[in-house]
Amino acid sequence: xxxxxxxxxxxxxxxxxxxxxxxxxxxxxxxxxxxxxxxxxxxxxxxxxxxxxxxxxxxxxxxxxxxxxxxxxxxxxxxxxxxxxxxxxxxxxxxxxxxxxxxxxxxxxxxxxxxxxxxxxxxxxxxxxxxxxxxxxxxxxxxxxxxxxxxxxxxxxxxxxxxxxxxxxxxxxxxxxxxxxxxxxxxxxxxxxxxxxxxxxxxxxxxxxxxxxxxxxxxxxxxxx
Length: 225
Prior knowledge:
Layout: E1 3-8, E2 11-18, E3 27-31, H1 44-55, E4 59-63, H2 79-95, E5 102-107, H3 109-120, E6 124-130, E7 148-154, H4 162-173, E8 180-185, H5 196-211
Parallel strand pairs: 3-4, 3-5, 5-6, 6-7, 7-8
Antiparallel strand pairs: 1-2, 2-4
């Protein structure tokens, strides 16, 4: 997969990019865990997500947030990282103007950034939010959540306790017109130690079902004029 450097809001950003052979293939953007706690685009889960989308014909990009690896800039507590993600998506879209839709998948801190990006970009039609931390980060911006997606967490996650993730899921499930799928990996911690295979099989199953036209939400009720 080609190494790439592209311009971000705080300087150059470093990524790994794999274009699809199909000009109109959807785009997948993968976002890594917290930069100040060892998160990089080479995290095992981020790499596996990248490979999963690539295998299914997506044009796929993962990159290092500002200040990580060869990406310039300094950690910006989420605001700058969201701008980085938007720039990364702009960059891929500039190379693939025929691609009309995309997915965003984020792990831990990356899931918080991914969900914010989802709110700003109507072309994002699916998301995967892995080990989100509603106990640490504010997810109240998801009002309403514009796309269907998967939220998946570990049963034994002490960083993002299950009850907090369940609260986020229940809130999002009340919305009409989208379908939130929730999966819990038994005995898994925040890092899915020894459980990455189980995590990935859940993500693959979800993506395959979506691509096959399953998991369709009930339509939102039309307003009477």
